[in-house]
Amino acid sequence: MGAGARETLNPSLHLLVLSDSALPLGSFAFSSGLESFLTHSTPQKPSTTLLRRFLSLSLSSLSTTTLPFITAAYNIPNLPTHTTTYSAISSILHLSDTFDATTTCPVLRRASTTQGKALLSVWEKSLRPPPQSMPPSLVDLPALITSYRHQSGNDNPPHLPIAWALISLSSNLTLHQTTFVFLLNHTKALLSAAVRLNLIGPYVAQRILAAPETLEVVQRAQETGLRVGVEEAGQTVPILDLYQGRHELLYSRVFNS
User: Fold this and answer.
1) Best CA proximity match to 199, nearest among 56, 62, 57, 45
2) What is the chain's percent helix, strand, coil content, to nearest 5?
3) pLDDT band at 248 (very low <50, low <70, confident <90, very high)
4) Integer CA distances (angstroms), 76 to 19, 49, 198, 214, in order
5) Are 32 and 186 in contact (CB under 8 A)?
6) Helix (H, G, I), strand (E, B) or coil at 231
7) Which 8-state DSSP code applies to residue 80?
8) What domains are there in the chain, each with its CATH number?
9) For residue 226, is it left (φ>0), alpha (ψ between -120 and 50) or beta?
């Protein structure tokens, strides 16, 4: 393979890499409130029915709390008002700070920043494409992502949705692909957590993941999220914040959230 081939960005390959459950983001440490939900619930329905209900609520929550920020972060580098990397990073940091402020549950906020830092580190060490293969943009995307990683401090740490949007854009993924894979990864992480909690087995998890009903829930959450702006973003399933917040009070737990 020649040097030219190595410098060609393959969006399809990056799409598969970003959708890989083995991406080292530490997502295995988080259950997105599922463990707390199961602990505080008295199961009166089959485990699969309970899990499908929780998955639907969790995706619905993401569609209005997180997807609007992914969309905004994805669009910032190509806004005509941002002609320099400095102006773009200022907007990115402001957006990240807004997401931090609107994420009222400290457990969820900590999970987002932990995975955001991990994703930026993975990009820097493994996924950063050659400059010649970067998609067209009004600003220097690698410099923007690097600035977001290093300028984010304790008061404004990097968040997963913002980092996800910028890295997906640098990989030449469309906004539709970016949001869909984000929701799909969340679905896979929840199903993996359900297996580790012995709620379901691995074969059942794969059956749920491949089910048309699951795809419909993911697509519905995506469609909703793409219609919601940052100004309208907010938690539509507040009970999930309660489950997340109660997680730290569990006497015995497998996950960090």
Assistant:
1) 45
2) 70, 0, 30
3) low
4) 23, 40, 42, 31
5) yes
6) helix
7) T
8) 44-247 (1.10.4190.10)
9) alpha
Q: What is the pLDDT of residue 105?
A: 84
Which two three-digit tokens encode residue 223? 């469609």
Return d(Cα 8, Cα 121) in angstroms, integer. 22
Instruction: Please give the structure tokens belonging to residue 88.
Output: 């773009």
| Structure-block tokens of residue 99 | 């997401």
Taking the C-alpha atoms of residue 194 and residue 34, their distance in angstroms, rounded to an integer, is 8
**Count of beta carbons in the 10 Å neighbourhood of residue 92:** 27
pLDDT (0 to 100) of residue 197: 86
Q: Which residue has the tokens 């995975």?
A: 115
pLDDT at site 165:
96
Question: How many other CB atoms are there within 10 angstroms of residue 216's CB atom?
Answer: 11
- Could you tell me which of 199, 8, 240, 10 has the C-alpha nearest to residue 103? 240
The two structure tokens encoding residue 196: 């580790």
Closest of 23, 8, 9 to residue 185, by C-alpha: 23
Tokens of 47: 């485990």
Q: Give me 119's structure tokens.
A: 């994703």
DSSP letter at 128 equals: P
Tokens of residue 4, six digits:
């030219």
SS3 for 229?
A: coil
Q: Is the pLDDT of residue 2 over 50?
A: no
Dist. CA 4–CA 25, nearest whole Å: 30
Instruction: Answer whether residue 142 shows pLDDT above 90.
Output: no
pLDDT in tens, 207-218: 999 999 999 999
Report the candidate in 70, 74, 90 with the shortest Cα–Cα distance to residue 169. Answer: 74
Report how far apart the first and last C-alpha atoms of the chain are (Å, whole number).
Answer: 44
